[in-house]
Design goal:
4 helices; 40 strands; alpha/beta; Udp-n-acetylmuramoylalanyl-d-glutamate--2,6- Diaminopimelate Ligase, Chain: A, domain 1; homotrimer; eleven-stranded parallel sheet
C-alpha cells in the first residue's frame, strides 16, 4: 500500500528533493494528480502544467526541478525513471496458474505447471509453454510451437504452427503470428500458391501490438530479434528480418524479405518495399515510403504534410507537370547563359 | 409483411407522389429493384439509373422527382429518409436473451437478464452488461469493464480490463478495445515498457469497425465521445480524444494524445501525428498526413494522386531536387530584376 | 519419403540436366540448401548465391543453367515449377474429419461428413460447409452462409451472416468477411446508421490474408471473383467488386463501390477511392493514391520515396508553394517572350 518517496528514489535511481517519508500511492498526469500521487515531466510540451500540479512529487530533469512546486525526484532520464516508479506503485495483476477446463490441449505438449491456459484456448500437438506464461483466453497455438517463460498472450491471439517465441514476450489481442506469406507464382495469368514452409522466430522481450500480423517465412524464417517492439495494425511479410531493439509504430507495412537493422525507429504508416536493407540506427518518419536500401544511420522521410484543400489542389496539379516545369526553367537558363 | 407507401412516407417524413396504398416489401438499388421494392437516389452519379428503374417507388430530392418513372417519396435528405425506410422494411434479426452454456462468466458480474451472452464468450470479474446487449460469440470482456444498454458486440470482439462503453454501441468482429498503448522509454538503446494505467471511455451511439484497435490511455483515458463512428482497420493510440459525431474511414492511424474535434470527417488511410489538435468541423481527405494542429473548420489534404508510372518517375525525380529548382528560379529572377 | 529428380522433372514439367535417380527430400533457399534439397532461382537478385549452393538440384531458367554447380531442372517459369515441386516434396498436413465436441452448431446446417469443424467453432443456422473444408478452431460462421468444398479457414476467422464462399478458398487467421459497411447518413450533424442489407460473394480459389476485413454490401453484394488473392491487413469496403485473378498486397484500403478489373496487381499500402473503376491488367504500385478511374492497362504510381530528412524538409516546403513557383516561372517566360 504505497512506497515512501525515499524508497522510490532509491529504487528508481533518482535524486530526491523533498520529504523522504512522504507516502506515494498512485501515479497520475501533472494535470490530474492529487495528493499521494507522483507525476512526471519528460515531454517539454507538458511543462506548462508543472507550476500548478497538485502531485505530491514529480519526476523530472534537473533543469525543471526549480519550477516544480512540490517534491521532485531528479533524473537525467525521467521517462525511464517514471516507468520504473509506475511499475512499483501499481503492480500488475497477479499471475494465474493451471488451465481452464474449457481449454483444448493437444498431444505431447510440455506446459509448465506455473503457466496459465485460459478459457477456450486451443493448443496443438507438441507445444511448449514456459514458466509463468499467461494465455488470457481464446488463444490458438498451432502444432510444434513454443512460447518461452514469462510471456503474456492476450485474448484471441493466434500463433500458427512451428513458431518459436522467446522469453517475456507480450502479444496483444487479435495479433496473428505465422500466417502464410503472400507467395504466388503467376502461370498464364492465374496465381499458383507457393507453399510457405518457413517459420517465425521471435527473440526475448519482444512486444507485439493488437491486430498485428506476422507471416511465416517462405523457406527460411521470418525473424524478430530481441527487444523488438511492434505497435498495432502492423503487417510483417514473409522473411522480414527486424534487428534487436527496433521499434515500429502502428499501421506500418513491411514487404517480403526486407531487412531492418538494430535500434531503428519506424514511424506510423510507413511502408517498406521488399528485398531491401535498412542499416542500424535509422529513423524513418511517419508515412514515409522506403523504396531503396538505406545504409547509414540518420533520419529519412517522405510524404507531404496537409494543406488547406484548395492550395493543395493547385500544388499537386503542378506536381503532375513538375518535369515539364523543370525543363522550362532549364530552357530559360540556357537562353540566358546561366550555369545549369 | 410490408408497409404501404402512405405509411412509409408518414414514418420517414417525406412527401408522397403516387399511390399511398402501394405495398412495399423490400429495398433495392435503382438498377436491381423490381416491383414491391423501394429504392433511393442520393448520390447523383447514380442518376443515370433513375429513368429505367423497375422499383415501385424511389426516395429522392425534389429536383429529381420529375425524372422518376414511378412513385416517389420526396425528401430534402433522401439518404436519411432511405435509412429510416430500410430499417422499417427490413427489421433487424430478433434479439436473444440469456447465456449460452459454453460462456465463461467471472465473479461479481451484473449481466442484465435481457442481454445475450453467446457461445464461448469469456467475461471477467465485476463486469456489467446492460439491457438487451448482444455478445455474438467468442467475445472477451476483461475485468471491471462495462457495456451499456442496447449494445451489439459481434463475434470475437476483445474488450480489455477497465473499459467503459455507453449505450447502443456497435462493435464489429475482431475489434480490440483497451489494449496497451505503445509506451516505451529508451534506456541506453533498449526499450523499457511504460505501464499503461489509463482506460478507454466510449460514449453512446458509437460504432467501431472490424479489426479496429483502440488502445487504453497511459494514465488518463482514451476517449470517444457520443456518436463517433469508426470504420475498419483503424488504429487509435493511447490518450487520443475523438469529439462527438466525428466519422473516421478505414485504415486511418491516429497517434498518441492527438485530440480530434467534433463533427470532423477523416478520410481513409489518413495519418495523424500525436500531441496535436484538430478543431471542430474539419474534413481531412483520404491518405492525408496531418503533422500540425488544424484550428479552423475547413478541408485539408495532402498526397499526390496516381499518374502513369513513367510520368510519375520523371516528376518525383524532380521533386527530390525541388529546393534546388526553386533556388535556380530565384537566381534567374534576381538577374532579371524581377520581384521575388 | 522423397522423389527422384526424374519423377520431379516429369511432374513439374521441366527439363532435367543431371542424375534422374538422385533423391530429393526437401526444399531450401540457395544459401541454406544442403544435399538432398532442391532450390530455385527466379528473382535474379539472388543469382549471387547460385555458384556456391550446396543444393542437390536447382530449378532455374535456361540462361542460368550453365552457372549452376549442380543438377538443374530447367523451366521457363521456375517460380511456378518450384511451387509445384514444393507442394510435392512437402505435402500439407493431413485433413481432419468430423467435429470437435466443443463446436457449437446451429439448426438446419448441411455440413459434409468429410469436413472438419475444429474446437470452439460457432456455426449459425442454415449453414453449408462443403466436402473436405477445414475450420481450424475459434471460427464463427453466421446464419445462412456457405463455404464450398476444399476450403481452409484458419483460426479465429469470422464469417458473418449470408456470405457465399466458393471452392478451395483459404482464409487466414483473424480475417472478417461480411461485417457491416460504413454506411452513414448525416442528419443535422449526427450520423444515422444505414442498414447494410447486401451480402458478400467470393468465387473459387480465392485466398484472404490475416486480419483482413471485407464488408458486406449495402444492398447488392460485395464481390471477389475467382482467383482473387488478398494479402494481410486489407480493407475492402461495401460493394467493392474485384475481378478474377487480381492480387492485392498488404495494407491496401479500397473504398465503397470501387470496381477493380481482372488480372490487376495492387501494391502494398495503396488507397483506392470509392465509386471509381480500374480496368483489367492495371498495376498500381505501393502506397499509390488512386482518386480517379483508370481505364487502360498499364502501371500507375504516386507518392514520393524517402529522402534524408533535411533534404526532404527543404523540398516539401517548396512543394507547398509549387503553384506560386510555377507562376513565377511563367512570369519570367512571358517577360522573355518564351513560348509557354
Amino acid at each position: 500500500m504505497g512506497l515512501t518517496l525515499g524508497e522510490l528514489a532509491d529504487r528508481i535511481g533518482g535524486e530526491l528533493q523533498g520529504d523522504p517519508g512522504c507516502v506515494i500511492t498512485g501515479v497520475a498526469t501533472l494535470q490530474h494528480a492529487g495528493p499521494g500521487s507522483i507525476s512526471f515531466l519528460a515531454n517539454t510540451s507538458y511543462r506548462k502544467y508543472l507550476p500548478q500540479t497538485a502531485a505530491s512529487a514529480v519526476i523530472t530533469r534537473p533543469e525543471f526541478a526549480a519550477e516544480c512546486p512540490t517534491a521532485t525526484i531528479v533524473s537525467t532520464n525521467p521517462y525511464v525513471a517514471y516507468a520504473r516508479a509506475a511499475a512499483l506503485i501499481v503492480p500488475p495483476a497477479p499471475l494465474r496458474q493451471g488451465r481452464d477446463p474449457s481449454a483444448s490441449i493437444g498431444k505431447d505438449c510440455s506446459i509448465d505447471a506455473s503457466a496459465w491456459i485460459g478459457p477456450n484456448c486451443i493448443i496443438g500437438d507438441n507445444v511448449h509453454i514456459g514458466a509463468g506464461t499467461q494465455l488470457a483466453g481464446g488463444c490458438f497455438i498451432g502444432h510444434d510451437s513454443r512460447v518461452g517463460n514469462g510471456g503474456y498472450l492476450h485474448a484471441n491471439v493466434v500463433i500458427c504452427d512451428g513458431v518459436r517465441i522467446g522469453e517475456r514476450v507480450i502479444i496483444h489481442p487479435g495479433a496473428v503470428i505465422g500466417s502464410d506469406g503472400f507467395g504466388l507464382a503467376n502461370e498464364n495469368g492465374q496465381w499458383l500458391k507457393v507453399p510457405q514452409l518457413g517459420g517465425v522466430r521471435i527473440g526475448n522481450d519482444v512486444e507485439i501490438g493488437a491486430n498485428t500480423s506476422i507471416d511465416r517465412g517462405a523457406l527460411d524464417d521470418t525473424v524478430l530479434e530481441d527487444g523488438v517492439k511492434l505497435d498495432n495494425q502492423i503487417q510483417v511479410a514473409h522473411n522480414v528480418h527486424i534487428g534487436a531493439h527496433t521499434a515500429i509504430a502502428g499501421c506500418v507495412g513491411i514487404s517480403g524479405s526486407a531487412r531492418i537493422g538494430r535500434h531503428c525507429m519506424i514511424g506510423g504508416g510507413a511502408g517498406i518495399v521488399g528485398h531491401l536493407e535498412i542499416g542500424d540506427h535509422v529513423t524513418v518518419t511517419g508515412m514515409t515510403m522506403v523504396t531503396k536500401s538505406i545504409t547509414g544511420p540518420g533520419v529519412y522521410s517522405s510524404g507531404v504534410p496537409a494543406q488547406e484543400n484548395s492550395e493543395w489542389n493547385r500544388n499537386y496539379a503542378r506536381f503532375r507537370k513538375l518535369d515539364q516545369l523543370a525543363r522550362r526553367l532549364q530552357a530559360l537558363e540556357r537562353r540566358l547563359g546561366a550555369k545549369d
